[in-house]
Amino acid sequence: VLIVPKTETEALDHRADFPAIPAGWAYLDTAATAQKPQAVIDAITRGYDTTYATVHRGVYQRSADMTLAFEAARRRVAAFLNAGSENEIVFVRGATEGINLVAQCWAGTQLKAGDRILLSQLEHHSNIVPWQMVAERLGVAIDVIPLTPDHKIDLDAMGAMITPAHKLVALAHVSNVLGSLLDARRAADIAHSVGARLLLDGCQAVPRIAVDVAALDCDFYVFSGHKLYGPTGIGVLWARPELLDAMPPYQGGGSMIDKVSFAKTTYAPPPGRFEAGTPHIVGVLGLHAAIDYVESIGLDRIHAHETALVTLTREALSQINSLTLFGPEDSAGIVSFSIQGVHPHDIGTILDEAGVAVRAGHHCAQPLMETLGVDATARASFGVYNTADDVAALVRGIERVTRIFG
Ligand code: PMP
């Protein structure tokens, strides 16, 4: 039996903050969606049972108060990302909608036939398909940056392949399958050297590392609230103000207008221009609480904690001969693996019987699976509530898998 040593990982144990994680359950699927701390649940409950009203329209006090809370959340997000102003923060449904918005409103209006877009081999489908949709329409080509042998985006290759025809580079800040952390500042410098814009898909980064869009020097940044311990249905697009100013609206409707007549309609300035319709008001309040929650712990501590858990996991799993580990040693909070002769779904099912929840599948990254030479992987991903006990449960479960499959 493999022994998982208890280390300084025990120093961070926020399990008690999460009412939906019962004792004895090892929840290792935070990369899919994070469990919610009581503080976020309370913010959502309060939003509906005490303070609920619409925003931006009501003349009565309750609505004015809710508008203040809603806009305070926007300022909170701006501070969280170190954006220049809250007007650079667009609330969207999630990273998927944020990327589609940039693809349609920025790429769809700025790119022309013959231009090129640069993606990487490890992207999530939501950072591939929206670009393909716009590229097909415009006659734009897509190129793909390969990975290094330890499964990071190969920035040397990016430097060698980028040309002035590339107008946009869109990359995962942290890979949802491998945990590979991008040197985003270097990617921005390479992109800008040819005048291209850089979009970062920050879904897996914001819950794990401190993000500063000014220091990264990127042009667009997107993330989803639900992976940051917040609610589903709410996410963020940050963009440089001059880019937002030049973008036409994404959807038409209420709230995004300046003046409407049948002769001509004019639009509100950003971010309102991109937020048609009644927003996910309480979702925004929940996101605010989620940011307060992670910052009360500290992203540097969260990152150190998850790195210690990754190291424990990789050390223990590397002792199992039939098991292949993917991704870099210094992965941010995520470990993907396969076991010879066992389908990842069987791994997931047997682990579930042992009280360990992992993800099995292609993780919405089929081109990456092809590169790894597998149809699917099993993936363990960590959050603030995980401890060395969860790693031990995972390792015991995998030993059981290898016994069952001989
Ligand atoms: N990008 C990455 C790296 C992700 O992990 C995910 C979610 N799995 C997404 C994009 C899409 O996020 P959402 O489904 O919340 O829009």
UniProtKB/TrEMBL annotation:
Gene3D superfamilies attached to this UniProt entry: Aspartate Aminotransferase, domain 1, Type I PLP-dependent aspartate aminotransferase-like (Major domain)
Keywords: Pyridoxal phosphate, Transferase
Cofactors named for this entry: pyridoxal 5'-phosphate
Reaction catalysed by this enzyme: (sulfur carrier)-H + L-cysteine = (sulfur carrier)-SH + L-alanine
Enzyme class: transferase
Pfam families assigned to the protein according to its UniProt record, in alphabetical order: Aminotran_5
EC number of this enzyme: 2.8.1.7
Origin superkingdom: Bacteria
SUPFAM superfamilies, alphabetized: PLP-dependent transferases
Domain Aminotransferase class V per the UniProt entry, residue ranges: 27-394
GO molecular function: cysteine desulfurase activity
Function: Catalyzes the removal of elemental sulfur and selenium atoms from L-cysteine, L-cystine, L-selenocysteine, and L-selenocystine to produce L-alanine.
Protein family (similarity comment): Belongs to the class-V pyridoxal-phosphate-dependent aminotransferase family. Csd subfamily.
Protein name (Swiss-Prot/TrEMBL): Cysteine desulfurase
Species this protein is from: Sphingomonas echinoides
Taxonomic lineage: Bacteria, Pseudomonadati, Pseudomonadota, Alphaproteobacteria, Sphingomonadales
